[in-house]
Write a structure and sequence with these properties.
Layout (H helix, E strand, L loop, with lengths): L4 E9 L7 E6 L2 E6 L11 E5 L2 E6 L1 H14 L20
Antiparallel strand pairs: 1-2, 1-4, 2-3, 4-5
Length: 93
């Protein structure tokens, strides 16, 4: 099953709206994400990400709630940290 996962934008690069990229933190794992679908997203915003694209911005409370649902469903194996422990909820500021 493919799911969208919440994460927090830690940095943004690029000016072209279609190629604008972000480093997004998923509970300690940082991945590159395309921001073409969320042109107003900024650093410290939470986004829902699917296959490398941010689909929507959400607030921190909603991000934490979605992360908890994913944890309950056992869908976080892909986001394990380097030590093999499950990722925790998205880090806030």
């Amino acid at each position: 099953m493919c799911l969208a996962v919440p994460g927090r934008i830690v940095s943004i690069s690029g000016d072209d709206p279609l190629m604008r990229m972000a480093k997004v933190n998923f509970g300690g794992i940082v991945k590159d994400v395309n921001l073409a679908y969320v042109p107003d997203a900024k650093v410290d915003d939470y986004v829902i990400v699917h296959v490398g694209f941010a689909l929507n911005t959400i607030d921190e409370t909603e991000a934490n709630q979605v992360f908890e649902y994913l944890k309950e469903m056992g869908e976080l194996a892909e986001l394990e940290d380097r030590a093999g422990r499950p990722a925790s909820a998205p880090e806030s500021q």
